[in-house]
Amino acid sequence: MNTTNTNFLSTKHDNPYCRVAEVMPSLLSGKSILDACCGSRMFWFDKSNPAVLFADIRNENHILCDGRELNIEPDLQMDFRNMPFSDNTFKMVVFDPPHLKSLGKESWMGKKYGILNETWKQDIKQGFDECMRVLEPFGTLIFKWNEDQIKVSEILSVVGYVPLIGHKSGKSAKTHWMSFMKGVCNEA
Ligand SMILES: C[S@@+](CC[C@H](N)C(=O)[O-])C[C@H]1O[C@@H](n2cnc3c(N)ncnc32)[C@H](O)[C@@H]1O
To answer: Between the chain's N and C termini, which has fewer beta carbons within 10 Å?
Structure first.
């Protein structure tokens, strides 16, 4: 059985800002990992790991109702639906997009995790495809999804890929960690 997909080798991308490495070479220097929507970097053991480029569409600070600070301060403000990187840039991409669609904008969960737009299916699909595009061949994509409002089976049919392995976590096991590899045949 052929388990290698080589379609990605001819990816063409028309993002005019594709050349971030040329415009801001220092931004990518030593960065082999991209966190495409880092939020406040809660799940990182080392929140300043020099191998990681932390990106998010927001750059904002909040005080939560319990008085704690919530700082979303990415290295790069960008939209994961249209990333400013050339194809095959990173060895690993971490993708933990918003997973809630019914949520007050001012709620602390909304501030922490962001909120899905009405166009969420298209947004997540574009984001996932961008993660794959900027990964090196045989690079790893780590995808996290909480199925409180949208089931894992639904989000996987939206992204169109089948994970290699997956693991549930949390008290009610609603958070799923999944991994994919670019170029290995894992399209649904
Ligand atoms: C679930 S949170 C990430 C939490 C993060 N993994 C952590 O450990 O703290 C999702 C993040 O996606 C960001 N986001 C939403 N839409 C985005 C987009 N189009 N491009 C980039 N980031 C986006 C939100 O601002 C939010 O910070």
So the answer is: N
In the chain, alpha helices (H): 20-23, 25-28, 108-113, 120-134, 152-159
Domain 16-181 architecture: 3-Layer(aba) Sandwich (3.40)
Q: Give the domain ranges of the chain.
A: 16-181
Instruction: Return the residue whose CA atom lies nearest to atom 17 of ligand 1.
Output: 57
Compute CA 97 distance to the chain's CA centroid, rounded to the nearest angstrom. 6
Percent of the chain topping pLDDT 70: 89
> Which residue in the block uniquely carries the two structure tokens 């918003």?
98
Q: Ligand 1 mean position to 114 CA, how many Å?
A: 6
pTM summary value = 0.91
Strands 165-169 and 175-181: antiparallel
Pocket test for ligand 1, best of 52, 57, 76, 78 (most atoms within 8 A of CB): 57
Q: How does 157-184 read in b/e, with b if 16+ C-beta sit within 10 Å?
A: ebbebebeeeeeeeeeebbbbbebbbbe
Closest ligand 1 atom to Cα of 43: 8
